UniProtKB/TrEMBL annotation:
<feature type="transmembrane region" description="Helical">
    <location>
        <begin position="213"/>
        <end position="234"/>
    </location>
</feature>
<feature type="transmembrane region" description="Helical">
    <location>
        <begin position="17"/>
        <end position="39"/>
    </location>
</feature>
<feature type="transmembrane region" description="Helical">
    <location>
        <begin position="79"/>
        <end position="98"/>
    </location>
</feature>
<keyword id="KW-0812">Transmembrane</keyword>
<dbReference type="InterPro" id="IPR036259">
    <property type="entry name" value="MFS_trans_sf"/>
</dbReference>
<dbReference type="Pfam" id="PF07690">
    <property type="entry name" value="MFS_1"/>
</dbReference>
<feature type="compositionally biased region" description="Basic and acidic residues">
    <location>
        <begin position="404"/>
        <end position="419"/>
    </location>
</feature>
<feature type="transmembrane region" description="Helical">
    <location>
        <begin position="246"/>
        <end position="266"/>
    </location>
</feature>
<feature type="region of interest" description="Disordered">
    <location>
        <begin position="398"/>
        <end position="419"/>
    </location>
</feature>
<feature type="transmembrane region" description="Helical">
    <location>
        <begin position="278"/>
        <end position="295"/>
    </location>
</feature>
<dbReference type="GO" id="GO:0022857">
    <property type="term" value="F:transmembrane transporter activity"/>
</dbReference>
<keyword id="KW-0472">Membrane</keyword>
<keyword id="KW-1133">Transmembrane helix</keyword>
<feature type="transmembrane region" description="Helical">
    <location>
        <begin position="172"/>
        <end position="192"/>
    </location>
</feature>
<feature type="transmembrane region" description="Helical">
    <location>
        <begin position="335"/>
        <end position="358"/>
    </location>
</feature>
<dbReference type="InterPro" id="IPR011701">
    <property type="entry name" value="MFS"/>
</dbReference>
<protein>
    <submittedName>
        <fullName>MFS transporter</fullName>
    </submittedName>
</protein>
Amino acid sequence: MAAGYLEILRARHAVRLLVGTLVGRLPNATAAIAIVLFVRAEGGSYSLAGALAAVYGVANAVGQPLLGRLVDLRGQPRVQLPAVVLSALAMAVFAFSGTDPAPLAYAAVSAAGLFTPPLEGGLRALWPSVLPKEDQVHAAYAMDAVAQEVMFTLGPLLVTVCVSLWSPQAALLILNGLGVLGALSVVVSPPSRAWRSAPREAHWLGALRSRGLLALLGAFLFIGMALGSITVASVPYADDHGGDAVYGWMMAGLGLGALAGGAVYGARQWAGEPSRRLRVLVALLAVCYLPLTLMPGAVPMVLLTVVAGVFLAPCIACAFVLVDLHAPRGTVTEAFSWLVTTFTVGASVGTGLAGPVVEAGGALWGFAVPGAAGAVSLLVLVCTGRVLAVPAGRGVVAASSENDPNRALEPRFSSGDRA
């Protein structure tokens, strides 16, 4: 298993791009908890803290595909670097001005979220130019998904360390400073500077004119809803079975399951059509959510959350392959950014939906939401199977060669074939 990942990491620039992207995304991964802790330290209410964190999230969801489109048009350094600097400056304004006046606080966090650079989509656009083989690109997508889980696990711990050693204000400033350094490491690298998107057909919908991409986004909206609803349903369960410590272990269990599943999935080559494989993975994901409704004791429940997370990273990694194949010519970064945004919006919707469900029927009905959302996601994939299917012989490396002028001799196909 490790040999495949080591082969990828030995490729020139691979470690730098992966680590730089992860560090560059730290501000985004830790924004919600850092904002909440800062607002509470300033004497603000939980309502204000939640509202500011939500505003950041909405602005981020809006900004990712817009900045992704600019990256496809202008290149990575000319967009990513100014964006990360503006985002960090806006968060610094928030850190120094505090919550009073409130309009300034809302404007600052909005700007910080809006200008968060689409490093995640940018990295996935770069993998085919760094790795020569299609199976390596697929494995890199899986490794990427696993690395994201590590970041979202360690990021909040880093926030608490900064708060403990210094202050919530220092946490905001340090994490955003690290974000600038991470993004800088990526955008000054040779692959990022050399990368150019293929010429694109002018269209106001951009990547969204692809029916295959729209089908994927529809499916992943519900996968995001499933994940978001678990975070809410777990709260009343934990209150009855040990409190905050149990809740923390349940959330860690989801991450651990995703890490294990992604590591195993990316360690081998997978034959067959990726859209068919995604349907199988989503079906398994939905099935693994169902045992949560059993609500056993704390230890078995934590183990069930590990199982519930196992197929999440493989689903995401497989979706990356399909995004690359279905993105219209010249829109690959925007397309990846749309997937990230849709998943995030879905998680927010799931969080909001699970609240009333839990209040009406308790934790049991709350845990029924993920299984139902997973089933709807599978239904979307089944109903759009013909749209998502990719003709044989059109691999991800060939598709992505359109975005790398150094691969001009590799097989190509027209944007019409991918839309």
